């Protein structure tokens, strides 16, 4: 270990290096103070958050939805003439693999999910053996969950056994190829310069020679490193197969998800009955006939999103100051939206909806106060004070904490990826899914539910922003505008355009017309 006093000896640049390291340390400490502070200091929960749209809120609380509108609202989507692609005449795997492919994936659950699909595709392009992808430690959520902690690895390998070769770990002769090994120095087997949305040709020109020379290639970073366009259809179909068939969550997440779903559909059952026997009973044929319906609301309204949007969320001067300071610490003030006024941002649909606003959207669409609403979210900025208006509109709102027993919660406590996986699973199996703002979870579930032809409401952010700017609008006008503006945003198949993600827009790459 080198003592600080020795850093200045023998090299003129070491003093400045010490200063730089000191500044970096100070920034990290400051960041830690923001992310680890108590909720009363990070989130201005001690200051009451008044409703921003009191006039609309009063009318929404008193709303009554006609039975005919409720019936139409809850009715499942009719067939749109699309079905999942069915494989035929699949060629056999080549007898010899070119070598092993490793990928290191950062980001949250859904970004890593896309990376896994792309890794399978790259392995197929190169005729390589894929090593189960390595999931980087998430610096935001501090979650060290690995692939096998989240996904059913045996199911993954089995579903893809006729497409590519997959191994859970490297053989002994390549055991040196680890994350730590690549973090220490420049290595010839590491591919560091893969461009964003690289073509298949790029991988054949730049990665295949490494495989042929060393028997292994490690690609890091890898997120978004494969193009969505100009790829052979068999590669596109394979990506779809991975995303919609091969990637399922580990059994205990699926079991817990089924228990929460059953509790939502059968609210009269007590929490103590939520064991495996209860799950078998409520999913029996007789019980399912009387099962209720529910909506999943993905509410991403954490401090990162609130600050980065640069929008005003009605928390007063204290909130504005707290968000401005947070922007300065995390992004050094370099936030594009900061150049615009709140009115300009809302008019362009660039402000995430608050819990109050998404509640008003749901109420205007026709969901009444008997609606069972599952709240899929992490930590809501503003805490219960900000959620209270949503709860007033939907008193039967539930979440993981209210539905799961303490023993069940203990299995996933502190594991952001598993918490997100549980929300994803419940969201996928809901009657209706809606996200309060665009993002990775929204995109992933919109694509997956499109593939399964399930009703999914996509908020018209520009319309909602403009409506909420109108402080004199009456409920009837607001209601009519919301209903009209969302008629074609409830799960209708949208064909993918160039550069758009195959995982958000699965037609026509993953689906064909019946």
Automatic annotation (TrEMBL):
Which Gene Ontology MF annotations are present? glycosyltransferase activity
Topology within the bilayer? Single-pass membrane protein
Instruction: Tell me where the transmembrane regions lie.
Output: none
Q: Which GO terms describe its biological process?
A: fucose metabolic process
Q: Which domain of life is it from?
A: Eukaryota
- Pathway(s) annotated for this protein in UniProt: Glycan metabolism
Name the family: Belongs to the glycosyltransferase GT106 family.
This chain belongs to the protein called O-fucosyltransferase family protein
* Organism per entry: Phaseolus vulgaris
Lineage of the native species? Eukaryota, Viridiplantae, Streptophyta, Embryophyta, Tracheophyta
């Amino acid at each position: 270990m080198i003592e600080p006093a020795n850093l200045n000896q023998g090299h003129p640049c070491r003093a400045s290096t010490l200063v730089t390291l000191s500044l970096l340390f100070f920034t990290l400490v400051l960041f830690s103070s923001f992310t680890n502070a108590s909720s009363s200091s990070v989130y201005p929960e001690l200051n009451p958050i008044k409703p921003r749209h009191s006039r609309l809120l009063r009318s929404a609380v008193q709303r009554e939805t006609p039975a005919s509108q409720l019936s139409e609202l809850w009715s499942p989507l009719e067939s749109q003439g699309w079905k999942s692609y069915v494989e035929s005449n699949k060629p056999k795997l080549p007898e010899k693999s070119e070598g092993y492919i490793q990928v290191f994936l950062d980001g949250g659950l859904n970004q890593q999910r896309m990376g896994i699909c792309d890794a399978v595709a790259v392995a197929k392009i190169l005729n390589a053996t894929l090593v189960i992808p390595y999931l980087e430690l998430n610096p935001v959520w501090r979650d060290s969950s690995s692939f096998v902690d989240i996904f059913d690895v045996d199911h993954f390998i089995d579903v893809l056994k006729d497409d590519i070769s997959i191994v859970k770990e490297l053989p002994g002769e390549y055991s040196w190829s680890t994350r730590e090994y690549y973090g220490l120095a420049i290595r010839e087997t590491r591919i560091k310069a893969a461009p964003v949305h690289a073509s298949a040709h790029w991988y054949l020109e730049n990665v295949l020679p490494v495989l042929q020379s060393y028997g292994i290639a490690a690609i890091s970073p890898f997120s978004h490193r494969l193009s969505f366009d100009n790829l052979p259809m068999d590669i596109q179909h394979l990506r779809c197969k991975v995303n919609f068939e091969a990637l399922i969550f580990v059994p205990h997440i699926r079991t817990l998800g089924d228990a929460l779903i059953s509790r939502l559909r059968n609210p009269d059952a007590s929490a103590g009955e939520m064991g495996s026997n209860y799950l078998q009973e409520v999913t029996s044929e007789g019980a399912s006939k009387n099962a209720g319906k529910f909506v999943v609301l993905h509410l991403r309204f954490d401090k990162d999103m609130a600050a980065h949007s640069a929008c005003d969320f009605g928390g007063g001067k204290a909130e504005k100051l707290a968000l401005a300071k947070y922007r300065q610490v995390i992004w050094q003030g370099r936030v594009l939206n900061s150049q615009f006024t709140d009115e300009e941002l809302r008019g362009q649909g660039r402000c995430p909806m608050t819990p109050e606003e998404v509640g008003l959207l749901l109420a205007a669409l026709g969901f009444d106060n008997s609606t069972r609403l599952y709240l899929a979210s992490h930590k809501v900025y503003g805490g219960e004070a900000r959620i209270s208006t949503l709860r007033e509109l939907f008193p039967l709102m539930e979440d993981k904490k209210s539905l799961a027993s303490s023993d069940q919660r203990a299995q996933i406590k502190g594991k952001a990826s598993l918490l997100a996986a549980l929300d994803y699973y419940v969201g996928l199996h809901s009657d209706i899914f809606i996200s309060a703002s665009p993002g990775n979870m929204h995109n992933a579930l919109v694509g997956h539910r499109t593939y399964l032809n399930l009703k999914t409401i996509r908020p018209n952010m520009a319309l909602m922003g403009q409506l909420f700017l109108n402080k004199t609008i009456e409920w009837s006008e607001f209601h009519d505008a919301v209903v009209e503006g969302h008629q074609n945003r409830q799960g209708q198949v949208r064909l993918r355009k160039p550069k758009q993600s195959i995982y958000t827009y699965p037609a026509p790459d993953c689906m064909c017309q019946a």
